[in-house]
Amino acid sequence: MKKRIGLLYGGKSAEHEVSLSTARAVTQALNFDEYDVYPIYITQEGEWRKGVQLLAPVETIEQLQFSNPSNQNLPNNISSFLSTSDQETEENSIDVIFPLLHGPNGEDGTVQGLLEVLNIPYIGNGVLASSAGMDKVVMKQLFAIAGLKQVPFVYFIRKEWQQDQKYWLGKIEADLLWPVFVKPANLGSSVGISKASNSKELIEAIEFALKYDRKIIVEQGIKAREIEMGVLGNDTPKCSVPGEIKPLKEFYDYQAKYIDGSTAMIIPAEVSQEVEAELIDNAIKAFKVLDCSGLVRADFFVTDGDEVVINEVNTLPGFTPTSMFPLLWQHTGIKYSDLIDQLIELAIERHAEKQQLNYTMD
């Protein structure tokens, strides 16, 4: 019997367009002989729109931005909305939701919490891992508990910055060395990130980042190679080969990632066996300390002295065929379509394990 897959994409996020590109790529890789595929589009205004069953891959992202006036707003009976017909029955239920949402309101645990309440299997990380992985400050605090090496950082919220800019500028200059990188704490795809080499640039970078989030993290720059690892699994995760990001620009920003292609990816990365072993060990430690499931891309710095420093993990990494995560697994021996199949099975496995828990005192 064919599995019914719900593709959940779009979203009220600065990464809306990235999500659409990912959804298009996934439709082109899914085997329509094995899966019934149902699109669920969230507009940038937050409206949920359910489309008719896809019978073939979509060619353009415009096909995924359908108008469905009768279903523009999420109804009170969300279970029926997420079924394959107007009636919620076991025969009509979607077997697995594939969240392809990047950034807040999708990658941060909010949608995952909704799906947990509805008891619907979904691909990827749960509420805790998603929310902790989205908040770079919380993530780094958990990494510190796990004993993972990190660059020094300072963080604050908008209200603190507005009340005493002088204090925070002084703290950053006292605790960190130039240059520094200023980031919104709760955003991905390098949105809102700037490099600062002096106080003037720092103020401008902070004001820019505050357009995207109320919490800001400022990290000390490091001279190092950028190495990424793919992690796949649930309780017994495995790692891909390492890959290296080589931006042709000053750093790997949104433009370099998605628009002008000014980035080289070297897979596998040229690292020693000892460094690769440490990357694998640290990637799995990071996966486990956040209680991740399904998939993670773990990003590291490797210095000239072969010191391994974790930067962050992405709990819903870019997932087009040319994104680093699928490419890492392709070079490890798992092609894109098979990777999707494995993620679907991992989602069903994790959901089945949860159903074994007792929810009564009997």
Q: Can you give keywords for this protein?
A:
single chain, 362 residues, alpha+beta, Rossmann fold, D-amino Acid Aminotransferase, Chain A, domain 1, Dna Ligase, domain 1, 3 domains, 22% strand, globular
Summarize the structure.
The protein is α+β, with helices and mostly antiparallel strands and 362 residues long. The chain has helices at 16-29, 78-81, 110-118, 127-134, 136-145, 158-163, 165-175, 199-209, 254-258, 273-289, 324-332, 336-354; strands spanning 3-10, 35-42, 48-50, 96-99, 153-157, 180-184, 194-196, 215-220, 225-233, 238-239, 243-247, 263-266, 294-302, 308-314.
Topology:
Blueprint: E1 3-10, H1 16-29, E2 35-42, E3 48-50, H2 78-81, E4 96-99, H3 110-118, H4 127-134, H5 136-145, E5 153-157, H6 158-163, H7 165-175, E6 180-184, E7 194-196, H8 199-209, E8 215-220, E9 225-233, E10 238-239, E11 243-247, H9 254-258, E12 263-266, H10 273-289, E13 294-302, E14 308-314, H11 324-332, H12 336-354
Parallel strand pairs: 1-2, 1-4
Antiparallel strand pairs: 2-3, 5-8, 6-7, 6-8, 9-10, 9-11, 9-13, 11-12, 13-14
Distance, first to last CA: 35 Å
Largest sheet: 6 strands, antiparallel
> What count of structural domains?
3
The CATH superfamily of the largest domain is known as ATP-grasp fold, B domain
Encode the helix/strand succession as letters.
EHEEHEHHHEHHEEHEEEEHEHEEHH
Quaternary structure state of the chains depicted: single chain
Q: What is the average per-residue confidence, as pLDDT, rounded to a whole number?
A: 90
Which radius of gyration do the C-alpha atoms yield? Answer: 21 Å
Considering DSSP H and I runs of 4 or more, what fraction of the residues is helical? Answer: 25-40%
Would you identify the CATH architecture of the largest domain? 2-Layer Sandwich
The percent range for strand residues is 15-25%
Structural class: alpha+beta
